Amino acid sequence: MSGVADKRNPVLDCCGGLNNVDYNKVDMSVMEDVLKYIDVYDPRFCVAVIAIIFNPFFWNVVARWEHRTRGLTRLFGGPYLACYCLGTLIILLNVYRSHSMTVAMKAQARWEVMASPEVFYAGAALMALGSVLVVTSFLALGFTGTFLGDYFGILMEEKVKGFPFNVTENPMYWGSTANYLGLAFMNASPVGLVLTAVVAISYQVAIIFEGPFTEDIYRQRAQCCKHK
Length: 228
Hints:
By secondary structure, this protein is an all-alpha fold. It is 67% helix and 0% strand. It has one domain. It contains 7 helices and no strands. Helix 2 packs antiparallel against helix 4, helix 5 runs antiparallel to helix 6 and helix 6 packs antiparallel against helix 7. The chain is elongated, with a radius of gyration of 19 Å.
């Protein structure tokens, strides 16, 4: 999934600034305590991890193949229908990912340290924040802008620079991550925390591959316009 934010204006990236974290100062004893409650050999946990990693890998591979060959455009008779079909498949895969994460959370032990009203309400607040980021991002980009339309040659006329892109550069990704973290809090689920970390890492890797590639697509469009 992609979006085009204004690169000329500084972006306050409240959720994606992982490069600023000093990992040497992280208290690993807390993570060790969390891992005591997690069965990594549980098939439901393994399915959730596979679903999390597979989704961004799938849409990046398919979208790049489409950009290179226009195979989906030819198959569906046009770029818009092809983009809508791929986007619908991505949505279904994400629904399954959410389902598999929920099943894994319910199957494993709760962490009593998290079983408090304060943690529950913090989780609800995270889910509300995440939903706002996801919904407003979708409204700002539209269906094709959200679901890799630029790989199909469906380019936006100008870069999106309003909310939520003036808050974080990848609001769809970090909004989804906030939703999963909130769900883990509300369920007092240590396995939910680990799965949310896997989601965040998967999205960070996807951004590394998607960002430069999307910028190159628009750079090529700009060069073509100059030569006309």
